[in-house]
Every structure is written in C-alpha cells, then in structure tokens.
Amino acid sequence: MRFRFCGGEDCADWILAEIFTLSKLSSVKLRLLCQYVMQAILADTLNLSEAQKIVGDKFESGDLKASIRALQYILTMSAKHSVDGQSLLNELTQLGLPKEHANALVKIYDEHFEKLTDKLRSSVMRLTKMNDIHWNIFDVKTTNNLHDMHLPVVTMNLNYDDNIENQAKSISFSLNPEQFAVLLADLQAARDLIKNYSKS
Hints:
InterPro entries: COMM, COMMD4/6/7/8. This protein is of the alpha+beta class. Helices cover about 55% and strands about 20% of the residues. The protein folds into two domains: about 1-125, no CATH class; about 130-200, Transcriptional Co-activator pc4, Chain A. The mean pLDDT is about 85.
C-alpha cells in the first residue's frame, strides 16, 4: 500500500517497526512524547534525557531514539505533503497504531500544523548538523596475479553534531574510486532535492 505521509510510497519497514514499539506506550504517554517531539522540531533542539522521563522505563535508550526519529518523520513528512488529520489518522491505524494512540498523535499534529509547515518552509529539518569534512587520497599497493597494482583510495572523516543526543560525533571511512563516484552522485542528488524543497 502507498501512504500520503510517505510521499505516496510504501511505508518503510523501520517506520512499521517503530509504530509497533510506540504502541507499547499508553496513549497518554504517546501524546506527551508527541508534544515534546513537536516542540523539539519547532525549536530545533531535543533533550534525550527529558524524553526519557516521559516514557520512563518502557524504552531503552536505543529504542527511544528510534521512536523519536519515527515521530519526527511522521510529523514532518505529513506536513510536507499537506496530509490532513483525518487522512493521517486513517493511515496510521491501517499500519497498526491503535486508534486511541493515533488520535493522540493527530491531535498534536493538527494543533501545530501551521507552525510546523511554516518551520518546514523556512528551514530544512536536520537530525544532524555537519561541521566539517576532511579527506585524503592514498595510493595503495596491491598484488594481483603476481603483478603489483597501485589503486587510489579516498579516506574521509566527517565531524557533525547529533541533535538527538546533543553531542559532537565523527565517523571515518574509506572508499575505492567506484564507491566514491556513487557517494558523490548521491550527495549531489540530495543537494538538488533540498534546493527544490526549499523553493517550494
């Protein structure tokens, strides 16, 4: 099935998994968590420890972060695609979220719809903020069928702020030329999508 809040596409498996996880909360706690996530979206900040207080010991830290990302996705994508509350309610219940829980989420969504759409128009929502990128190209010597070969390898180090955990992080990885070409093409496509979305 295709869903409006997913941009007319099938619902991703990870969203389905998180809907099941969110169903474990009471509808009252889900409403409070949705309210907190909505305020975090509008303010561009989120304190994971405060969110943990809302759910108590129902979720481990990893489950909570995944559920927050799912709520951010549902709320922002629904607003981006101008999904009305009743349609969102129907789609969430079709995906297995109990009706009482879906009603709680949709109530928060409807109450903040105008502020959320204004926020999306003014800025691109990000779970992470890139600080800087360092890269180098190394010549790696390998042996293939008794012949020495020299292959270029790109190493990259990304430093970014994780807005969910409110801390700076970094990740390093290496790519061969073919992998780097794919990454570059994907990044250029993502940049174009963001530009087009910002203009809409």
